Amino acid sequence: ESYDMGGHDTYMHKEIHEQVDAVDRVLRGRIDDRFATVRLGGLNLDAREARGVRRVKILGCGSAYHTGLIGAQLIEELARIPADAEPASEFRYRNAVVDPDTLYIAVSQSGETYDTLAAVQELKRKGARVLGVVNVVGSAIARETDGGVYVHAGPEVCVVSTKCFTNTAVAFALLALHLGRIRDLSVADGKRIIAGLRRLPEQIAEVLRGEEKIKELAAEYANAKSMMFIGRVRGYPVAREASLKLKEVSYVHAEAYPASELKHGPLALIEPEVPTVAVLPDDDLLEKNRATLEEIKARSGRILAVAHQEQEKADHTIVVPRNEVELDPILMGIPLQLLAYHTALALGRDIDKPRNLAKSVTVE
Ligand code: AGP
């Protein structure tokens, strides 16, 4: 993509709409149908080394950290390697035990975020193997890491990350599939995930075609005192990212919680002026999530659901197409980018340059 606005009023809108092509690009040339896997040329991790990995720790900040949460789940699910994500800004200061059998992954759009770079440098000093999942080719983090996966989202100008978030999640799916097929993921499951990845660009286009409805919903919820975002397991990182997106660009206060944690405190906040956005993949937690919606309704809370079918308990549902459950977080985040965008627009915000924020935080 270019810096040309191509008829869009803001870079954020342009970049949301570029996701169809961007996802196509991150997949291009990487799928290996013969062995139901993917080729990741720059990874610099051979099969023997990949089999020796005992843990994966993903480090990033802000939206990059949220993609790390998605990445960790994908790696655990597809490659069955224990994995988690942590804000790089915290990790670098807690004198973490650096384990030689752990694969560390730094994730960053710009590749220049100081906290993430400092975490990489600390890890390298202690002899760890660190890979990068990075968008900007040749950036500091790309240079400091031992190898990695480029995200190929193209230039992202808006301070608020959208297309890079989605492409990074897809890059993690590729990495998880690659590690899975070296370990114990079956050919059948490899093929299933590949087919799901191939469906993504058209399904993203379908979500984007629903923009008018999301715009109307944004107008309806724009005057909320605060918004609650909830999800469980696969839905939770999506809820976190959607909450961050809304805060950054519209300045509407938002909280994100695992739906299971609501009853342990945040339920006290629920009232008609504090609507809930519930991210509801059609997985084995759907029934439990529906019970949480009932608890919210019992407190007169309004609910906007993101789900694969209309939700009876919700006031409104944004329906997203079905894919493989493992890939649900990728698609479910996209309507919530549009919700944040149209909320900000309705409130007259400076969308591409939200107050107090910079595109890349190169200082501590
Ligand atoms: C994204 O919308 C944010 N502006 C911010 O959280 C960002 O993701 C974070 O600062 C990390 O940036 P990076 O991906 O360039 O490292």
UniProtKB/TrEMBL annotation:
Range of the intact protein held here: 250 to 613 of 613
Q: Which residues form a coiled coil?
A: none
Name this protein carries in UniProt: Glutamine--fructose-6-phosphate aminotransferase [isomerizing]
Q: What are the catalytic residues?
A: 359 (for fru-6p isomerization activity)
UniProt keywords (A-Z) are:
Aminotransferase, Cytoplasm, Glutamine amidotransferase, Repeat, Transferase
Q: What does the UniProt record say this protein does?
A: Catalyzes the first step in hexosamine metabolism, converting fructose-6P into glucosamine-6P using glutamine as a nitrogen source.
**Residue span, SIS domain:** 45-185, 217-354
State the compartments where it is located: Cytoplasm
Source species of the chain = Streptomyces lonegramiae
Describe, as the record does, how this protein assembles with itself and its partners. Answer: Homodimer.
**Which Gene Ontology molecular function entries are recorded, alphabetically?**
glutamine-fructose-6-phosphate transaminase (isomerizing) activity
Q: Top-level EC class, please? A: transferase
